[in-house]
Amino acid sequence: MRPTARRYRRGVHRYRFLLSAQWIILTLVAIALIPTMIRLGFWQGHRYDERTARNNLVSEALHAKPVPVEQLSSPGHAVTRTEKYRTVTATGTFDTAKEEVVRRRTNSDGEVGFHVLTPFVLTDGKVLLVNRGWIPADGAQTAFPKIPAPPAGRTTVTGRLMADETTAASGIKNVQGLPDRQIMLINSAQQAHRLGAQVLGGYIEQTGPQTDSPEQISDPGSEDAPLNYAYMIQWWLFAAGVPVGWWFLLRREIRDQEEAAAAEAATDAQEKPEKPEETEPAAV
């Protein structure tokens, strides 16, 4: 047999293990993982863009110049993404007789209590819903809690404009049959029906005048967009690492086979009996 043919046959035999079930499964898994990881990286990239856009939107809203609330909202209005978190002002009178509390709300320390929702009657008779802040749930939650009184008489409040709460957006189930003057979600349409008044769409989280009680709601935190960017890079590095890892496993398998073949050849050489030396016939 020609030397080239022998080398070719040795080379083919060297990679025959790739046809084993173990290596076929390993290769198919590696092929499937690469596009999957690339797609996951793109998904994390989209999440990074979305979170960055939301952070920018919230930051712009929080730093925008305060405007009268009726410039952004009206009865039946649905607060938009660009209007949410805008600082607004309103002048009117708190109606504590029709005050309600929102159940299962937490403060910045994670303590469970209530948010205080007080109708604020504007000078033109329309109503703005004001979330005055958080109070602890002392005692049984079936009883209406004791709530610190707001400023009496005509006053001006400032706050962050918020959209009506829904179960789909908040994940909070709108439980029925609650104790009197307790609700789960803040919804201006429902409040308009309850109050029999024109209620501006959405509500505000009061930021001024500042009070110690109720505990005013802190500014919204920014979403961790850089974490999604890091995950994007991580998934793409994993995708690049799959063929590299497959190649290293291949080289290790070949090396192990060569070492096993060399050890077997050495063992055969040791066990093979030596031929007796041939001697020349003695001269006559």
The outline comes out as elongated
Q: How many β-strand runs? A: 8
| Unreliable stretches | none
- Spatial gap, N to C terminus: 45 Å
How does the helix and strand content classify structurally?
alpha/beta
Strand content: 15-25%
Please give the count of helices: 5
Order of adjacent strands in the largest pleated sheet: 2-4-5-8-6
Structural domain tally: 2
CA radius of gyration is 37 Å
Q: Helices and strands, in N-to-C order?
A: HHEEEEEEHEHEH
Largest sheet: 5 strands, mixed, barrel
Estimate the mean pLDDT confidence. 88
Task: State the helicity in percent bands.
Answer: 25-40%
Family: Belongs to the SURF1 family.
Protein name: SURF1-like protein
Subcellular location: Cell membrane; Membrane
Membrane topology: Multi-pass membrane protein
Task: Summarize, please.
With 284 residues, the protein is of the alpha/beta class. The chain has helices spanning 3-14, 21-62, 167-170, 188-195, 225-271; strands at 67-68, 87-94, 100-106, 112-122, 127-136, 155-162, 182-183, 203-208.
Task: Based on the model shown, name its key terms.
alpha/beta; 5 helices; 284 residues; five-stranded mixed barrel
What can you tell me about this protein's structure?
With about 280 residues, this protein is of the alpha/beta class. Helix content is about 40%, strand content about 20%. It contains five helices and eight strands, in the order H-H-E-E-E-E-E-E-H-E-H-E-H. It has a five-stranded mixed barrel. A hairpin with a 4-residue loop joins strand 4 and strand 5. Helix 2 runs antiparallel to helix 5. The longest helix is centred in the C-terminal third of the chain and has 47 residues. The protein is elongated and about 135 Å long. The model has no long low-confidence stretch (mean pLDDT about 90).
